[in-house]
Q: What sequence folds into this?
């Protein structure tokens, strides 16, 4: 018997997220953002980067419409910021933004944690 295929919205999504825990926010104009921040020691930064890469790759291969600034016609967009803190920690902040359809697909692929 062949295993069931995952729903299209979850195909290609990382099985689980170890470092990135997303919080949802809305702007009141129909746009939804998902924000996550992870702070790690330098030896774990590559793992966090890989996790962020996997989420972005999922979005690029799953979402309909072009990636890019929403006010310039993009259907979804992302921003990744990596900072080195003075005490030896590194932080990675990842934000993905899109419309309600984007939010539904994102929440199917990355159910709320905790």
A:
């Amino acid at each position: 018997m062949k295993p069931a295929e995952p729903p299209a919205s979850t195909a290609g999504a990382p099985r689980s997220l170890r470092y990135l825990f997303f919080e949802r926010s809305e702007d009141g104009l129909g746009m939804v953002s998902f924000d996550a921040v992870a702070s790690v020691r330098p030896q774990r930064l590559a793992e966090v980067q890989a996790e962020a890469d996997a989420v972005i790759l999922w979005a690029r291969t799953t979402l309909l419409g072009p990636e890019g600034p929403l006010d310039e016609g993009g259907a979804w967009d992302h921003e990744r910021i990596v900072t080195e803190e003075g005490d030896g920690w590194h932080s990675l902040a990842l934000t993905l933004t899109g419309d309600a359809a984007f939010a539904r697909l994102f929440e199917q692929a990355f159910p709320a944690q905790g």
In short: The first strand starts at residue 23 and ends at 26.
